[in-house]
Amino acid sequence: MKSGLKVGIVIGVVVLVIALLLGGSYNSLVVKSEEVDNKFSDIKVQLERRKDLIPNLVNTVKGYVTHENEVIDKVTSAREKLASANSLEDMANANNELTSALNNLFVIVENYPDLKANTNFIQLQDELAGTENRIAVSRKDYNDAVSSYNKTVKSFPKNILASMFGFEKKEYFEASEGTDEVPNVSFE
Q1: How far apart are CA 155 and CA 29, in angstroms?
Q2: Cα–Cα–Cα angle for 118, 124, 130, nearest 5°?
Q3: pLDDT tens-place values along the chain, 188 residues long
Q4: How far apart are CA 125 and CA 131, in angstroms?
Q5: Closest CA to 43 of 167, 144, 187
Q6: What are the Cα distances from residue 163, in Å, to 83, 117, 149, 183?
Q7: SS in 3 state form for 17-79?
Q8: Is the Cβ–Cβ distance between 70 and 138 less than 8 Å?
Q9: What is the rounded CA–CA span in Å between residue 97 and residue 78?
Q10: Greatest distance between any 2 Cα atoms in the chain
Q11: Domains in the chain, ordered, with CATH?
Q12: What's the distance, Cα to Cα, between the start and end of the chain in Å?
């Protein structure tokens, strides 16, 4: 064989190997990006379920609690913010506000033994607790997927390919500042 043909074959094989490596890297970025989007969708489903439970809970509490309108209004307002949230940051903030409002509502419920014993209320509270657990799991799964994706996007040599094709770092679903504090409820 002529040396020119050998060089051509070697160059062709090298180009083919590089193309396969780039294609595999690109595909792994696409898969990880889709996984993040899927996990985000799971969070949205659970937040929607939670949002749908709130009116029933509020109506049940309203039947017993007559002078606690401010707390009920905060729950309703926070629910509306969650319903209208579009971005990840808005959803996280609205979710945290709703959690705080619900915590205040449950503190008030402690003063109403008849309400605490109401079957509807107990069932709604259990469903809401289950939903809260699902949200926590969905958030963890989402953040795990984001972590894996972000590591891939930042790692060499995939970071070069990621920047060429517009794969950017994704944001975590984090709690807002102050959500780790116990709510202060006063009956004055």
Answers
A1: 11
A2: 135
A3: 688 888 888 888 888 888 877 778 888 999 999 999 999 999 889 888 888 888 888 888 877 776 677 888 888 899 899 888 888 888 888 888 888 888 888 887 887 777 777 787 888 888 888 888 999 999 999 999 999 999 999 998 889 889 989 999 999 988 655 444 544 434 33
A4: 10
A5: 144
A6: 34, 58, 13, 43
A7: HHHHHHHHHHHHHHHHHHHHHHHHHHHHHHHHHHHHHHHHHHHHHHHHCCCCHHHHHHHHHHH
A8: no
A9: 6
A10: 97
A11: 34-164 (1.20.1440.20)
A12: 97
- CA 41, CA 90: separation in Å to the nearest integer? 15
Distance CA 94, CA 82 (A): 5
166, 161, 129, 167: which is closest to 146 by C-alpha?
167
- Give CA–CA dist 88/84, Å, rounded: 12
